[in-house]
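G., before I forget:
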Amino acid sequence: MATPTYIKLAEVTASSGNTLIEFSSLPTTYRDLVLVGNYFNSSGGVVSARWNGATTSQRRIRMFARDGNSPYTDQAADANIGEYAAGDLRNQIVVHWMDYRATDKYKVAIVRHAGLNRAFMYANHWESTSAVTSVGLTFNRGLVAGSTFALYGIE
Amino acid sequence: MSSILLGILNAQAAGGATAGGAYDLLETQTLDTATSIVSFSDLDTYSGYEHLQVRMVARSDRPDPNTQDYFVTTFDNDTNYGTNYTASRLQANAASTSSFTAGSTGTIYFESVPGADFGQENTYAGVIMDILDFNNTNKFTSIMAYGGFNSAVDRRIAIIGGTYLVASIPTSLELRCGSDNWSIGSKFALYGRSGA
């Protein structure tokens, strides 16, 4: 039997200078979460994933393209899931936090991120078998007011 | 800082679910036995949807150190790879990016699934696959999938597009683990999406 899903759980509009967007007390109803962000910054920087309030014990691989450069790939044991440029053009990020309540596997997030003259795709792992109770994004440069983030739940 | 507590908001969202229908959970499979092929075999009962989506968190039990595995997507158990499928993919392994076009001899091939153990314990790939316009006999059924994984010993990421070159409505979808079996604990879910 079909079950309606992909339910909007929350939406937040950032204030000027916010560096953390976090959704906590996550429901136990869903299997995956999808975070959709539309944001801009006055300075360029990096956005990182937070699992249960932490940016540690993570690994990521990415491939990306920048205007005028060949496609590139790298990996690191960090929480980087996107890089943004300064300016009025917004950045878009979609994070699929998958099987977030599972306790038999490390957690994986698949990320698409696009902004001024650049496009990224990431596979991020949080090396923990703990159930996830909060997810979030941190920005090393403050957000401009009006940036929006929404979280959806998928059964 | 913006920190959002979801306890109350989720209660509000539950009301919205009854008015939904644009994106429905249809089937789930969580493996308690390793298997080489995961199938969704009732696609013909989902004619009310325009598109389907598969979301998977999966790994292979390929017993090979430092090596990833792959999977192949088929429809209607049709393994006539020589003529009935075409695909292109862009993938990376952190050292280099590469792209492939399978052309008329192709398979819909996704090479970003971790093998078993050897430092990859507990690591599963996340993959999201859209199956587009599968109910339309005027178009070939096409898919787009993206995902990957990163363990302590290996890492892959990929995005692929593929087409089933048969102008019929497929009644089944198979996800064929490349070298060995899908591991116990792998999860696969099928969703239906209404048209725009």
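The two ends of chain A are 13 Å apart (CA to CA). The mean pLDDT of chain A is 94.

More on Monday.
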